[in-house]
Write a structure and sequence with these properties.
The protein has two domains: 170 residues, Rossmann fold (3-Layer(aba) Sandwich); 199 residues, Rossmann fold. It contains eleven helices and 15 strands. With 439 residues, it is α/β, with parallel strands linked by helices. The N terminus is likely disordered.
Length: 439
């Protein structure tokens, strides 16, 4: 079942026809005192997203609430988490092992076979000797040889007067990796034998600066496992699951979780959400012959990382999101922009991508402030942005973004006064909740 990635790309393609042009911000000289609505109204942002459809979201929520959890308000990376599990399970069936050799089939089951979305239908194709092309809840998921998708869909979401956004109002932008980025399938260089029972662990944010992503990601993982087991499991046995927290880079939670999961004999670990967290544990995981599969890592560093052929992600690399955001800002009419980004692999990488693409689009970058996400206040950083007086402000943050936005509002450069943009690290309704509560 050795296959190569589908050739459905050319140069980097970013479709903008579905993006709404109005940002909802105004120039600083305009009178905004009479503007109704919440302080975040008009803020736009992007995240990897497709039109999930009610079948998936209703099924996911029914499963999640039946397990005693609160209904999901955000779906950030839920589908990507779901698809990560599905691809691992299908690869195990194709390889007929839960050992490290299953990694060599993950790219294969994602592209150029008979299209299927239902796990049982995909397994039937494999059992009949066919090749499968799993079309996931998060999109086609055609994998490059380095373990990342070659195509992406981004949702463009806009906060309303209640400081929330609605997924129903999203518009969508497509982006494909250029042909020059396509590489051969990586060889699996660490051999680990399986025992016939696929065991999956999770290392996702129960705590820390990305904790708002935890519920949809855990829900996606557990929902996928439930459907797989309802369909008969993998290799004739139910899939086993061990949950774990990733925390963030301010703690050693991820390392502790990985040690526990490896000690319990997992075959694959779903996570982390944070690129910087994954970089702290990727060597430990892959050296053990265990698959690491992130639903949310977007740092470009993973595209060429020496990972023994065992690291995968269903989230697209930031070079694609950087182009989408740059085109969004430019199409909204901004002539100047100021970028504020957290100091980690994700923040600096995405900021660099946005800067390069926005400059190429003819927009002037007045400054790029890289800040310490553990800072207690952001008054000085925001004051620098105010003094620069850009048309648009691009925020590459995690949950500290709510405090940055509050400071921006206090200094008169919030979304009612400026075009303000977010990205997948902060675009959740938790941002509005935290802003409203003063967190």
């Amino acid at each position: 079942m050795k296959k190569t990635a589908k050739r459905r790309f050319g140069a980097l393609v970013v479709g903008l026809s579905l993006v709404a042009a109005a940002c909802g911000g105004s120039s600083e000289s305009e009178d905004t005192t009479a503007t109704a609505g919440g302080e975040l109204e008009g803020m736009k942002g992007t995240m990897p997203l497709v039109d999930l459809g009610s079948e998936f979201t209703d099924g996911l929520n029914a499963f999640w609430t039946a397990a005693g959890n609160a209904a999901l308000e955000d779906y950030s990376y839920a589908a990507e988490s779901f698809d990560s599990v599905m691809l691992i399970a299908l690869a195990a069936e194709a390889a007929q092992t839960d050992g490290s050799a299953l990694a060599s089939q993950i790219q294969a089951v994602s592209a150029e076979g008979e299209t299927c979305s239902d796990f049982a239908a995909c397994v039937a194709i494999i059992a009949a000797g066919g090749d499968v092309n799993y079309e996931g809840a998060s999109g086609p998921q055609d994998m490059n040889g380095n373990g990342e998708p070659i195509n992406a869909s981004y949702g463009v979401l806009t906060f309303g007067a209640d400081n929330r956004f609605s997924y129903e109002d999203a518009s969508y932008v497509l982006a494909d990796a250029p042909a020059s980025d396509i590489v051969p399938n990586a060889d699996v260089t660490v051999e680990r034998q399986g025992d016939g029972v696929l065991k999956i662990g999770s290392m996702l944010p129960e705590t820390g600066s990305l904790a708002f992503l935890g519920p949809p990601e855990f829900a996606g993982v557990e929902y996928a496992i439930s459907l797989i087991n309802e369909a008969g499991g993998v290799l004739g046995n139910p899939v086993e699951y061990v949950q774990g927290d990733s925390g963030d880079t301010s703690t050693d939670t991820a390392s502790t979780t990985v040690d526990r999961l490896l000690g319990e004999g997992v075959d694959a670990i779903i996570g982390a959400a944070s690129s910087s967290v994954s970089l702290t544990v990727i060597d430990k995981i892959t050296a053990a012959g265990v698959i690491q599969f992130s639903p949310a890592n977007t740092s470009d560093k993973f595209s060429t990382y020496a990972d023994n052929g065992l690291y995968f992600r269903t989230a697209p690399a930031d070079k694609l999101q950087g182009a989408v955001l740059a085109n969004l800002i430019a199409s909204d009419g901004a002539a100047t922009v100021y970028i504020m980004a957290l100091d980690d692999a994700y923040g600096t990488g995405l900021a660099d991508s946005i800067e390069a693409n926005i400059t190429a689009a003819g927009v002037t970058v007045l400054g790029k402030k890289i800040y310490d996400p553990k800072a207690t206040t952001f008054d000085a950083e925001v004051a620098e942005i105010k003094d620069a007086n850009p048309d648009a402000i691009m925020l590459v943050t995690f949950d500290e973004g709510s405090r940055i936005l509050r400071t921006m509002v206090e200094q008169g450069i919030g979304p009612k006064a400026k075009m303000v943009y977010g990205c997948d690290g902060n675009m959740g309704n938790a941002l509005g909740q935290n802003f409203d509560s003063g967190n």
